[in-house]
Amino acid sequence: MIQTLFGSVEQEPTLLEKLKSGVQKTRAGLVTRLEDALSGKKEIDADLLDELEYTLISADIGVSTTNEILDRIRERVDRKLIGDASELRSLIREQLLEILEGSERPMPHVFEPPAVVMVVGVNGAGKTTTIGKLASRFQGEGRSVLLCAADTFRAAAIEQLEVWGERTGTEVIRQKPGSDPSAVLFDALHAARARKVDYVIVDTAGRLQTKTNLMAELEKMRRTASRVIPDAPHEVLLVLDATTGQNGLEQARKFTESSGVTGIVLTKLDGTAKGGVVVAIARELRLPIRYIGVGEQAGDLLPFEAESFIASLFE
Amino acid sequence: MFDNLSEKLQRVFKNLRGEGRLTAENMDAALREIRVALLEADVNFRVVKQLIEAVKVKAMGEEVLQALSPSQQVIAIVRDELIKVLGSHESKLRFSNDPPSVFLIVGLQGSGKTTSTGKLARWLSKNGHRPLVVSVDIYRPAAREQLNVIAKQINIPIYFGAPGEALPVDLARSAKLEATNSGRDVLLVDTAGRLHIDDDLMGELQQLKELLGPVEILFVADAMTGQDAVKSAEEFHKRLGITGVILTKMDGDARGGAALSIRHVTGQPLKFVGVGEKPDAFEPFYPDRAASRILGMGDILSFIEKAEEFVDKKQAEQMQQKLMDNEFTLEDFRNQIRQMRKIGSLDSILKMMPQVGMLKELQNVKVDEGEMTRVVAIIDSMTPRERNNHMIINGNRRRRIAKGSGTSVQDVNQLLKQYTQTRKMMKSFSGGMLGGMLGGKSGGKMAGKLGKMKLPPGFGF
User: Which of A32, A286, B43, B88 has the highest CB neighbour count under 10 A?
Assistant: First the structure.
């Protein structure tokens, strides 16, 4: 059982255990400070609200979302609807839950395999590692998987995916470095149909969302996919590094525009970063958060749970 | 998207009419805006707090300058303060008297260590050094292969390890020996990405440090990092004593507030920035540019520097004279387009512009590179006489030009119209280069606005 700002949390041993087990976090300070603030004072005063603001902004939730939450709290305090610091917990929790409502949606079921999952994101977000984990996860569900090495740009990206292919016993469709990503995708989709696999997971090169020509390349890949398999890609996952700050919102916007993102994978949550920018993303773009990454092993990919995510913001 | 800070401040001061100077009241409103701007740029919360205090003290004691409006004055103070924190001049690398000088490259996963190692190696060799690189990342799949590929690309030797060498310390030790034996003066050690709270792996870095005695321990940080930057940088510094920072992915649109946070908590200088995926997309860090960028004022200095690198100064002066004399011909128009394209894609040029005033609209302009090619093709299809005097281009000539360039008469008409507009506009705006560059579809209009825009203090051409 874990003590958080919102009392004890049960029911989600997977996430919290994982978060705890991997590495010992240096999380002292914040909880203590906040608990002190909450227990030491009955009245909600400016100091306490400052403390809350600090907590939310430190989690990368962003100024506007934080202000929105704090404004609502101030309003209720002014109208004397809450006067006790302890009531704050449930209030903040409610507000965040409201924003993250609908973020828990799992990937939709594809009736006619292969389901094509494209994985996109900026450089170094953790796309290839996430793909390895996804492959292992789908296989664990008894599904067959094919990997498509469409990051033909970065040095040794294909080799990296191939190592994951070996680890998970999954075939990797590849071409030479530097070849057209859409051509690799084309091959992979035909192979997937011929072999009747359930999932094709497509690795793409990392790209900053400001590079218009590279973003156009993703659009082309989408078109290629839909020419081979009418509904493809069925899922486009944006991999987002939890250490990312406010730029994450811009990433989500631009990638959604060009590649039609359908869900987010939040990686590197085993560090001290909270990944709060997904709250801002959920608020603005209503994108579901499919999975979270909590380590480097194949099993370190978990379904997103809003409740425990919110709890972790205050740890 | 969030507004630009200078716009916000202008609004703040406008609302306080009659206040031509800094007072306690209007300062508070201004400081609030500055605070939001810094937080949105991902500067750490605590660092922001201290900065605001410093700015407040400074601003209140400041004499009112006649030349600057209050908002300009406040921005100047904030910018100075940011530059002060970021370090007042670019930092050099240290080298050992007893070569090889070992540089340890460390950081979180995905921050860009391997790419930066390659770029730094290339930069060193361009600056008269003989680097050797080695990757001791035995964890991430194909990480060592990645550095191998990069080293081949940039033609830098790599120590790839002997059979049976599987531990980072073994690889590092042999690489150092190899560097000594082959007369390399710098050894770059690319380490595995790790979390700052991963005790075992942080211990491994300490071991490497002890073994190699590096003169530089460079912490590679992603410019997009948020509030957590302070925690990771602090921990790496505590365990290893980093000597400098490489800020990567600065070619994106992140404001890079993490730079400020990292510098603040470690006290160590930012030495380089990564600005692209190509091996040469690597530059020394300039505090003044970073400060402007954090404040959303663009990176006009980088732009000017880049322009200077490609534009022939003499030619530019001639051009300016021609503009003033209204002798700007289609030939010149074409030359300008060609010159601008040497600098980079229009998109990348626009990215470097400050998002100030009217220029902000430019950020949303879709630049059609194909359109530029068409324009050049049309001018190419003209005779030299036509290029020197557009007045003689009649209907017949237009048809011929259209045919020759594979366009339509309408396209030719449009170009000529655009050219005459540009010419008219440029007469009133002598900063030739900018006008010429915007020769796209709405070039005339945009450049016209450019002529009227106000740049923040210190940004005059």
Answer: B43
Q: Which of B220, B255, B290 marks a domain boundary?
A: B290
Residue B91 belongs to some domain of the structure? no
B39 touches chain A (CB under 8 A): yes
- A54 in contact with B, Cβ within 8 Å: yes
Asked whether A130 and A239 are in contact (CB, 8 A), the reply is yes
Please say whether the beta carbons of B124 and B131 come within 8 A: yes
Q: Is the same domain home to B134 and B229?
A: yes
Kindly report the nearest CA distance between residue B250 and chain A, in angstroms: 10
Q: Which residues, numbered 258 to 317 in chain B, qualify as contacts with chain A under a Cβ-Cβ cut-off of 8 Å?
A: 258, 277
Burial of A179: CB neighbours in 10 Å, binned 0-12, 13-18, 19+: middle
- What CATH number does residue B430 fall under? 1.10.260.30
* B113 and B193 co-located in one domain: yes
Considering the domain boundaries, does residue B338 fall inside one? yes
Number of domains in chain B: 3
Quick one: chain A helix, strand, coil %, rounded to 5? Answer: 50, 15, 35
Output the pLDDT for position B31.
Answer: 85
- pTM score, whole prediction: 0.77
Please report the beta strands in chain A, taking only residues with DSSP state E, as ranges in sequence order.
2-4, 7-9, 115-120, 145-150, 171-173, 199-204, 235-241, 263-267, 289-293, 301-303
Are B252 and A57 inside 8 Å of each other by CB?
A: no
Using CA coordinates, name the residue in chain A closest to B147. Answer: A155
Kindly state whether residues B306 and B272 are assigned to the same domain: no
The answer to whether the Cβ–Cβ distance between A160 and B146 falls below 8 Å is yes
Beta bridge mates, B107: B220
Q: Is the dihedral of CA B209, B210, B212, B216 positive or negative?
A: positive
- In angstroms, rounded to a whole number, what is the distance separating the alpha carbons of residues A201 and A116? 6
Residues B338 and B370 in one domain: yes
**Cross-chain CB nearest to B142 (options A160, A245, A296):** A160
| pLDDT tens-digit readout, A190-213 | 999 999 999 999 999 999 998 888
pLDDT digit string, tens, across residues B105-163:
999 999 999 999 999 999 999 999 999 999 999 999 999 999 999 999 999 999 998 88
Selected residues 199-218 of chain A with any CB under 8 Å from a CB in chain B: 208-213
Q: Are B278 and B360 contained in the same domain?
A: no
Neighbours of B244 (CB within 10 A): 20
**Edge-to-edge strand list for the sheet holding A289-293:** A171-173, A145-150, A199-204, A115-120, A235-241, A263-267, A289-293, A301-303
In a domain, B241, yes or no: yes
Range of the domain at B58: 3-86
Q: Residue A244 has what DSSP assignment?
A: B
CA distance A145 to A171: 8
Statement to judge: residues B41 and B19 lie in one domain: yes
Has residue B458 been placed in a domain? no
User: Tell me, what CATH number does B176's domain have?
Assistant: 3.40.50.300
ipTM of the complex: 0.85
Asked if the Cβ–Cβ distance from A159 to B109 is below 8 Å, we say no
- The dihedral over CA atoms of A33, A39, A40, A41, expressed in degrees to the nearest 10, equals 110
Residues in chain B with CB shorter than 8 Å from the CB of A154 are 146, 277
Domain boundary residue among B290, B318, B347? Answer: B290
With beta carbons less than 8 A apart as the criterion, state whether B187 and B102 touch.
yes
